[in-house]
Every structure is written in structure tokens, then in C-alpha cells.
Amino acid sequence: MAKRRLMQAINDALTEEMTRDPRIVLFGEDVKISMFGDTKGLQARFGADRVRNTPISEETLTGMAVGAAAAGRPVVLHLMFSNFAYAGFDGIANQMTKLPFMTGGQIRLPVTVLCGFGGGTSTGAQHSDTPYPMLMNLGGLNIAVPTTPADAKGLLKSAIRSGYPTFFLEARTRGGEMGEVPDGDYETPFGSARIARPGSDITVIAIGAMVRPALEAAEFLAENDGINAEVIDPRTLVPFDESALLSSIAKTGHLVIVDEARDRCSAASHIAAIAADKGFASLRASVRRVTVPDMPMPYAPILEKAIYPDSKRIAAVVKSVLRTRGPISASAAQ
Predict the structure, then answer these.
(1) Helix, strand, coil shares, percent, the chain, to 5
(2) Total number of domains constituting the chain
(3) Is 72 exposed, middle or buried (0-12, 13-18, 19+ CB in 10 A)?
(4) What sign does the dihedral 194-198-203-205 (CA atoms) show?
(5) Which of 78, 127, 254, 270 is catalytic?
(6) What are residue 233's DSSP bridge partners?
(7) CATH code at position 228
(8) Residues in Cβ contact with 103 at an 8 Å cutoff, skipping those fewer than 6 apart
(9) Whether residue 166 has pLDDT greater than 80
(10) What pLDDT is attached to residue 324?
């Protein structure tokens, strides 16, 4: 295995997939200079016909993606920031997610949309949203949210090869992190969560950039409070690995969900609903969510930090949930 940064792993996946399938085209905003590093060097390698810089016109870009994919060209569309999906939403919500259904499967749309999401970098309200709740509601998109370089590469390969419209969301605060990436060609399956840290006292579902502070909180709680938290990284939100969630809460009896989307209608809300609908008998306390308030993300770093979930806030919520539990478990008593 080689160690790669998350953005380098994405770049590796794009390079390998475009080499494997000469039909694939990649276009979007500043894909040549690659502000995030995920498309760095691809135009020099594959040429301007297959890797195209485009004007900043998201409505045009999403329409182009649908048209090219319908004509048989697998498309990787880079929207840069996830907020920009709002400007191209007709092509996403009314075309990309609907045409395969409306044509009875006669039109296939192999479109993978890349974009960076989330706060924590002081880029202002129009560049810091976490839009997957809106995308989850469309009913015609897969949604991948990788948190490790290995998963980033494997999930992107799965997305491109699926032939299905997919949003591949890059947590910008995780892009520079190092991790081991398997050698050779591989895919990471959609709908299969990763247990980032095994535990027995409480389940913590953490999405995207929230996995790191959740793990930090779990280590703090283990060292200082004897609490053994299980941290689960869903990897994909659509499809979502319900069995991993239900198996974990059957073991722990407690659930906290950490999500940097705004609280109202967040992915955390949906996951909590799954737990209530299908795992209620396992729960020994109410489900708690750690999210962002229902407001735009502030630009000022001190204000952004005040509303952005961190390990201290996660640990405090975990402890508040466990105050209502029954007799302390053997693992927590040690």
C-alpha cells in the first residue's frame, strides 16, 4: 500500500478511469488549474478535448452533463463548490434524476458530479454549505461522502462505473489528510458502512468531515470517562447502510448522529428516523443529533467555529445521552 492524500487518491482514480475508458470526459470550472488538486495534471495528460475548462455557468454545465451522458459519454462534472449546484439545479433535479425513470430506462445517465462541501475553512456562506439533505430528497441520485483516501479512490471508481447519476462530495477540511491506499484496481461498494472505531456503549454515526472529531471525542471519552463509543462512517448516504446502524444500536442501545448540515431536514434527521422506525426496541435513550444551527455559515473564523461541530461538543452530547442509561456496562466500568 502507498500513502496518499485524499485529493491525490481522487486524482489517481480519475487518471485510472480515464485511461481505462477513453469515452469518459471531464469538464467544469477551473479543472485545468485544479484549485482543490483533484483534477491536477489531467488536461495535460488527456488533452483539452477530454478535460475541458468551462465558463462559470452551472445551469449550462448540468445540462451539458445530461446531454453528453444521454449520448453515451460517461461524464465527470466538477462544480467546484457544492453551493454551485443550486445554480444548476434544474439540470440536476428535473433532468439528471428524472430522465432514466421517465424513459423507462431507455436513457442511462452515467454522470458523476464532484464538488467540495462544508465549513471549517472560512470561505463564507455561499461556499460552505453541506447540501446532501437536498440531494438525498431527489430520489434519483447516489451520494458518496468519503472520509479516507482509500475510500475516496474506491468510491469514485464505483461511481464512475455504475452508470448512475452520483454526487461525489469532497469534505474540504479532509482533502489534505494522508492514508494508506490499496495497490491495484479496486472499488469500494456503495451502501456498505465502515466501522471506524468499534465500541459497546454508544453508537456515533459521523458523516464526512465529522468522522475525525467524532473519533477524537471517542478517544477522549474512553480515556477520561470509561465510555466505549462505536464510530461508524456511512461512506454513502444513498444508498445508506441501514443494517450497520441497526446492528450497532442493537449492541449499544444509544445513538448520536454528527452531521455538519443544518439541523432542519438534515441527513442526521433521516438517520434518526430510521433508528426510530426500525430500531426503536433497541434504544435505551433518545437519539441525539449534533448539527449546525439553521443559519448560513458565517465567514468570520470565530463565528464559524462557534457553530461548527467539534470533538468537545460531540463528547458532551454523548455524555448527556448516557446519563439516562441503565446500569453501566462492563467495558465502561473498566
Answers:
(1) 40, 20, 35
(2) 2
(3) exposed
(4) negative
(5) 127
(6) 194
(7) 3.40.50.920
(8) none
(9) yes
(10) 62
Higher-confidence residue: 179 or 176?
179
Q: Are residue 105 and residue 167 in the same domain, yes or no?
A: yes
| Domain end residue (candidates: 130, 159, 181) | 181
Question: Around Cβ 182, how many Cβ atoms within 10 Å?
Answer: 12
Tell me how far apart the alpha carbons of residues 325 and 334 are, in angstroms, rounded to a whole number: 17
25-84 pLDDT, tens digit per residue, is 999 989 999 988 999 999 999 999 999 999 989 999 999 999 999 999 999 999 999 999
Q: 199: part of which helix (H) or strand (E)?
A: none
Classify the C-alpha dihedral 138-11-119-207 as positive or negative.
positive
Asked if 4 and 149 count as a contact pair (C-beta separation under 8 A), the reply is yes
DSSP 8: H
Domain co-membership, 158 together with 206: no
Q: State pTM to two decimals.
A: 0.94
C-alpha cell belonging to residue 14: 480519475
Within 8 A by CB and 6+ apart from 177, the residues are 5, 6, 148, 149, 212
254 is catalytic: no
Three-class SS of residue 296? coil
> Distance between CA 168 and CA 283 in Å, rounded?
32
Contact between 79 and 28 under an 8 Å Cβ cutoff? The reply is yes
Q: The sheet that has 255-262: what strands, in order across it?
A: 194-197, 229-233, 202-206, 255-262, 288-292
**Cβ–Cβ < 8 Å for 35, 198:** no
Provide the domain limits for residue 62: 2-181
Cβ proximity of 267 and 261 under 8 Å: yes
More confident residue, 172 or 47: 47
Beta strands in the chain (DSSP E): 2-5, 25-28, 51-53, 75-81, 111-117, 142-144, 166-171, 178-181, 194-197, 202-206, 229-233, 236-238, 255-262, 288-292
Within 8 A by CB and 6+ apart from 161, the residues are 17, 187
The x, y and z cell numbers of residue 303, run together, are 463565528
